[in-house]
Every structure is written in structure tokens, then in C-alpha cells.
Amino acid sequence: MRKLWVCLCCVLCLSACTAKVKDEKVPQVLQEYKKYVNAAHAQIIPNPMQIDAFSPYSNSSEAYYRAMDYVIAHGAKTNGEESVTQKEALQDVEDVFFTLKALYGKYPIYGDARFQEAKQMVDKQIKKYAKIKKTVLGEVLRKQLSFIEDVHFQIDFEPLHESYTMYCEQGVHYQKKAYVKKKDGYYDQSNQKRIVRIHKDADLAAYLKPVLHKDGSISYQLFYRSRKNITHLSMRYADGSERKVAMEKVEQMKRSEDILTEKIVQGIPYLHITKMIYPRASDTYAQYAETFLARAAQFSQKPLAILDLRGNPGGNAKLSYAWSHSYAKQRISGYGTRMLRLPLHEQKFKQLMDEETDQSLASLLEDANYQKYDNLLYIEEPYMEKKLIENKSMLLVLQDETSASASEMLIDELHTMENVIFIGMPSAGAISGSAMTSFYLDKSGLQIMFGNLYGDFPETYASEYQGIAADIWVQGKDVLKYVKELLK
């Protein structure tokens, strides 16, 4: 093992030396395109903070600790019964809604009235049964809580909503100029006709997404996100004619078993990480996290570098904070407003979280920009400056539909910096919540998972389930091929 590690270090050193020789020049096409991207990112305007909604829920920490005691006591999976009595089911429901009110980050956004309405409907359904199956109880809870938009929220390991599937035009890839934009609108290159509607929708920009070509031109390709299976989209032209466009599912990159991959791509240093795990003394992943963090400072000294976040479902947000802050050489925030329902200032809580979690949330005060608002609310304000943060280097960030949560936080923060270009598909859209709390109900053994974070983003920039869009749209399996050709 020691020999293997020494060999790996040698390879990395050689790679770094090779990069010094080859990465001195940024392709002209990227030099020009970064101006467009910088201007677009600088136009993002954060939403006003919704602090008033939190005020009724932040005066006392007594309920918070009672809920935390329940969560910790029920953290281990129990066998439970396949069916529970009506009384037992009603008690489980009482526990669900109590813990949500005390701990759930998005609870104040929806408010007491909406959750009480849901609870009444759940209780009503349960009272139809003398005994109720665990699976049925889960379905009832999931249905009545479906007003919640939160990818992280799970009941018995199932989300409240199905995820979207991304479709693209069949047979069209990044090398083909399928559609172009002129002064009077978008044109179909297959017949030179001007498009007026896609899928009966006049908002063509919602379907036609940009691709940058080696010659510096920008063309557009057809993408559509749906929860239903589709085979075709209708396209209507200015002359009244129509065409059915065959669609197929976007192909994602094959999942990598490696946590960290480094190599040189067309003379450019490349880094791919598939898990956000913050280094701790006893952590088996510490070496990967430490290498990942070390590359942030190195990348900031390179004319051009590539950070690949495809297939990264997130993990510990501290690693994202640490990477972006090291790359930027300062503490930065993204365009999202983040609110934590946590008594971070209390010593009891600090000890509790350090003992019970691997995220050590109390130390967020050191790594992030959270500021105390009141007893149970800490806020990280969004980036509000009119100019992007200066960045003399250029960074290409690769992303896809599985880039989620903590990796999306990194994507968000890097949007506030100059010369960062995002390539791939929209991210997963796990941005408004977190997955801090996971426990099992006392009677039924149903698993409940949610978080104490609420993230608020400008709707046109990022949204739950929709994610953060790329600057250049290329389906996941082709992204690295595309980058290689762009860098030739």
C-alpha cells in the first residue's frame, strides 16, 4: 500500500510538472466566450430574504432540544411491525409533525396552517383503519406532505416527488449546429424556417439551449425536462407548418467508483471528485478530501483548469465552502440566501452535534459566512455586489443531473467569480434543503429524513428539482469529449 501511495504521488507530481509546460495558453474561443459568461453571471439578482416567516418559530430552543432528543434516540433502524394500530399510527404522526415544526428548515416557509391542514388529513385517513400497514402509512404521509418542494425530504427512503428526466433531440450532438439565433428569432437549420412555438409554447429559450463551437459561433440544441415519458415534441414555424421532433433521453456519464481522479486533459489539469466528504482525523476519506482542497489553491494559479462535479451527489457542505474559499483566496457566498435553524451559539448544542454527526455543524461559523439572527436562526446572506469577484485564472466546471446538494453549493459560489464557465446539464436541484436529520418513527419504524437548512434562490437562476443551468449544454456522457475538442 505504501509503495502504491508513493507511486501515486510521483504520478501527480509529474502531472503537475507537465501541466506547467502545457497549460500556458487559454484557447481564444474561451477568452472571448468568458466575456459573455461573466456578463450573464453578473446579472443574477438574489431574492430578498424571507426572515419574517421565521420569527414565530425562533424564540425558544426547548422544543428544539426535545425534538433532537427524539431524533437521536430513534437514529438506529428498528425492525418495527408491518402493521400498527390506529393509536400507534396517530402517535407516529404526532411525532412527525412535532419534529418538523421544531427542526425542519423549510417549515416556516410553508407555516403552521399548511402543516396542520396536512396533519388533519393524515389523521382522517388513519382513523379509517383499526390497523394500518407501514407502507400505507408512508403513502398517506407522502401524499399529504407533497406540497413540500425538497429533494432531500424522504419518507422510508422515497422522495415526495419523482425526479425529472432530461430529453434531447434524437441524433443531435454537440458538433451539430441544429438551430441558430438571428435578429428575428430562432431558425431550424434543417429547413431554414423560423420557429414560433415548441410544444405549443412561445418561450423558445426554455427549450433551445446554447452550445459553443470551436470557431466561436454559438448554436442551439433542443432539450426538454419531463416527469412523463416522451418520444416527440411538436415544432411550429412562422409559415404555419409543423414538424414532429424525435426525442431521446439524455445519457449521463457512467458512474465512477473512484472518489478522486486527476489527469491532464489537452495540457490542462483536470480534477474529478464524486463525494463531498470533509477530512477528519479518523476519516478514511481524509486523503481524498485533503488532495481535493490542495488543488483549489493550485488551480487558482493556473491559466486554465477543469473541475468535474458530474456524478457528485454532495455530502458535507464544509468541503464545498473550503474549496471555493481556497480557490477565491477569500470567504465567499453564492447567489442563494441560506438560513439555518440551529442554536449554534449554545455550548450544549455544539457538544451534541460534534458527538452525534460527522458534519460538526457548529464549526460552520468558522468555515461559512453564517451570522446569528436570533436564538434559532443563522443566515448566510447572498453575494450582492454588482461586479463579480476578480479571478485571473479560468475554471471550467463540468456538471450533470446528478451534481447535487453540496456540489451545487460549490457551483453556486463559483458563479460569483469571474472566468468560471459551467458545461454540461442542469444540476440535480437539491438546493433549498438539506439532509441533516434522519430517524425512524417509534411505532411503525418508518424512516423520515429532512434537514435544517433553507436555501432561497432567484427563480430564473436556480430552483428545486430544476437545478442550476450550465452555460454550455452538453449531455453528460459527451462533456469531456466536448471539452477536449474545444481545447485542441
How would you sum up this structure, described in words?
The protein is an alpha+beta fold. The chain contains 12 helices and 26 strands. It has helices spanning 2-22, 28-42, 62-73, 86-103, 107-126, 134-144, 286-299, 317-328, 347-356, 364-367, 406-414, 479-487; strands at 83-85, 131-133, 154-155, 158-159, 165-169, 179-182, 185-188, 193-198, 208-212, 218-226, 232-237, 242-249, 260-265, 268-273, 304-308, 337-340, 371-374, 377-380, 394-399, 420-424, 437-440, 447-450, 453-456, 462-463, 467-468, 472-473. It has an 8-stranded antiparallel sheet, with no helix packed on it. The longest helix has 21 residues, at 2-22.
Please state the overall shape, judged from the principal axes of the Cα atoms.
globular
Whole-Å distance between the termini? 37 Å
Low-confidence stretches: 1-23
**Structure annotation, total helices:** 12
Overall SS class: alpha+beta
Strand content: 15-25%
Please outline the major beta sheet.
8 strands, antiparallel
How do the strands of the widest beta sheet line up side by side? 6-7-8-11-12-5-10-9
The average pLDDT is 89
- The percent of residues in helical segments reads 25-40%
Please give the number of β-strands: 26
- The radius of gyration computed from the alpha-carbon positions, rounded to a whole number of angstroms, is 24 Å
Describe the structure using short key phrases.
8-stranded antiparallel sheet; 12 helices; 32% helix; alpha+beta; 488 residues; globular; 6-stranded mixed sheet
Quick overview:
The chain has twelve helices and 26 strands. It is an alpha+beta fold and 488 residues long.
